[in-house]
Design a protein that fits this description.
Strand content: 15-25%
CATH architecture: 3-Layer(aba) Sandwich
Protein name: SDR family oxidoreductase
Family: Belongs to the short-chain dehydrogenases/reductases (SDR) family.
Helix content: 40-55%
Largest sheet: 7 strands, parallel
CATH class: Alpha Beta
Bound molecules: nicotinamide-adenine-dinucleotide
CATH topology: Rossmann fold
Strand order of the largest sheet: 3-2-1-4-7-8-9
Pfam families: adh_short
Distance between the termini: 31 Å
CATH superfamily: NAD(P)-binding Rossmann-like Domain
Length: about 250
């Protein structure tokens, strides 16, 4: 798929990886629908995308975990832009904690609220956006591309029972949707980043960040633009579907 003039929805599109992908795709002429919870940052990203070369960029306030908000957002994007050609399911949150922890005689556990919040945004949000966008693409008779942002944590990361489950679910459903949607000319693939320099990771404790960086074979964190580059490859390569690209500096080797 050539990116020029293509309409692409990016969730979590005003910060970190989402913003980087937005600017990268804008510079290649894509028309962007940026979806997030933060109105101020969305407006700022729309301005940056227009400056980067996007023919059109618009902001949509929407919580991807809420079914009625996702249905409304997708229908608004279709009304504003016409065809929808792409979706990047990028919005995500962390609510880390060990499932059971005993420290100094004190027992603590991962709360159901911590579990549910991450499942709602990182897994249900991906399902809702994919379902609505794929339905629109099929209805419009459009070929399209859906990219899911999973994580190396899908292999199982201590302190991330909620996040690992969601990201493993996203990787599994990437295969499900690649199989289900191929007949309509829709490709679905995923990227599993390692540790990338965004607000999500730079908020880690400095000692933990240093230890983690030392364990990466390439000895550095990834840059958001390196994820944007991989997303562009997926959009542009018409024979790529159903696979997860690990982009982790060798961390999982
Ligand atoms: P980030 O926290 O910097 O940005 C996430 C964006 O998603 C924010 O703009 C936030 O407002 C938005 N968002 C959160 N909940 C939302 C909701 N319910 N509805 C709509 N928007 C919502 O995170 P990031 O580091 O840029 O991560 C982006 C994606 O990449 C996430 O799915 C994350 O799990 C994944 N990931 C990140 C890393 C990393 O190292 N940064 C590694 C692996 C995977």
């Amino acid at each position: 798929m050539q990116l020029n003039d293509k309409v692409i929805i990016i969730t979590g599109g005003c910060q970190g990886l989402g913003r980087s992908m937005a600017e990268y795709l804008a510079a290649r002429g894509a028309r962007l629908a940026l979806v997030d919870l933060n109105a101020e940052k969305l407006d700022d990203t729309v301005t940056a995308c227009r400056a980067a070369g996007s023919g059109e960029a618009r902001a949509y306030l929407c919580n991807v975990a809420k079914e009625e908000e996702v249905i409304r957002m997708v229908s608004q994007v279709a009304g504003d832009f016409g065809a929808i050609n792409g979706l990047v399911n990028n919005a995500g949150i962390l609510r880390d904690g060990l499932t059971v922890k005993l420290k100094d005689g004190e027992l603590s556990t991962l709360s159901l609220a911590q579990w549910q919040a991450v499942i709602d945004v990182n897994l249900t949000g991906v399902f809702l956006c994919t379902r609505e966008v794929a339905a629109k693409m099929v209805e419009q008779g459009n070929h399209g591309v859906i990219i899911n942002i999973s994580s190396i944590s899908r292999a199982g990361n201590m302190g991330q029972a909620n996040y690992s489950a969601a990201k493993a679910g996203v990787a599994a459903d990437t295969v499900v949707w690649a199989k289900e949607l191929a007949r309509y000319g829709i490709r679905v693939a995923a990227i599993a980043p390692g540790f990338i320099e965004t607000e999500m990771t730079t908020s880690m404790r400095p000692e933990a960040l240093e230890k983690m960086t030392a364990s990466i074979p390439l000895k550095r964190m990834g840059k958001p633009v390196e994820i944007a580059h991989a997303a562009t490859f997926i959009f542009e390569n018409d024979y790529f579907t159903g696979r997860v690209i690990d982009l982790d500096g060798g961390l999982r080797l």
